Amino acid sequence: MLELKNISYSVKDENTGRMQDILKDVDLTFEEKGINVITGPNGSGKSTLIKLVMGFEKPTAGKVLFNGEDITGLGVTERAKRGFTIAFQQPVRFKGITVKKLLELASGRKMNTEDMCDCLSSVGLCARNYIDRAVDGTLSGGELKRIELAMAVAKGGEVFLLDEPEAGIDLWSFEDLVKIFDRLRDKTVIIVSHQQRILETADKIFLFDQDKITSAGRGDDLFALLTRRPALCWRNLKEN
């Protein structure tokens, strides 16, 4: 179980010099299994929350607990060792490294073609066409995004943090993305997204607005609320 207890995060405003709240007194509990989707208006603190959970940033106040252990002071490496995996909104480019090497680094072991095919096909890519490709400017943003998601699948773990995983994914491949979530449903999956189709897959939805949670509940219940008030968060899939 992953718990956030009274989490606050503030930064100094460069213009005024005053501290500005990005998150304030956030209490969240993510169960050991299930798809959790965090949604809400831009600028409400969703991506910041993901960075705090992964250890890229430290909260101004509050605690992060994982299976009862206080991990607030642990960095990215230590959290990764405990089973935390992240996929960024904007994938990183690695000049001079191949897709095969990236997948092996992510998994921590040598991988055969069948293993790599399983990871890459889960995100709609053919291993034969990609394992020897360099992860550089010759790949499109959508290809890089899918490769990063394949790395997350290869690494495995207990907690998966996905910040707008649909970014750069074309409509044709979107159902492949949803299938990945189904494969991970026995883990703790936390997704930041505005997409209606992803919200439909959620076991639990958390609605953020103005640095705090304004609503939280079962996926079908919150989805019904958002259906009545779509301006709160989502983009239609056709806009992707």
From TrEMBL:
Record GO cellular component, one term: plasma membrane
UniProt entry keywords in alphabetical sequence: ATP-binding, Nucleotide-binding, Transport
Name assigned to this protein: ATP-binding cassette domain-containing protein
SMART domains: AAA
PANTHER family referenced in this protein's UniProt entry, alphabetically: CONSERVED COMPONENT OF ABC TRANSPORTER FOR NATURAL AMINO ACIDS-RELATED, HIGH-AFFINITY BRANCHED-CHAIN AMINO ACID TRANSPORT ATP-BINDING PROTEIN
GO MF annotation terms: ATP binding; ATP hydrolysis activity
Pfam families, sorted: ABC_tran
Annotated source species: Candidatus Borkfalkia avistercoris
Residue ranges annotated for the ABC transporter domain, each copy included: 2-235
Gene3D superfamilies to which the protein is assigned, alphabetical: P-loop containing nucleotide triphosphate hydrolases (3.40.50.300)
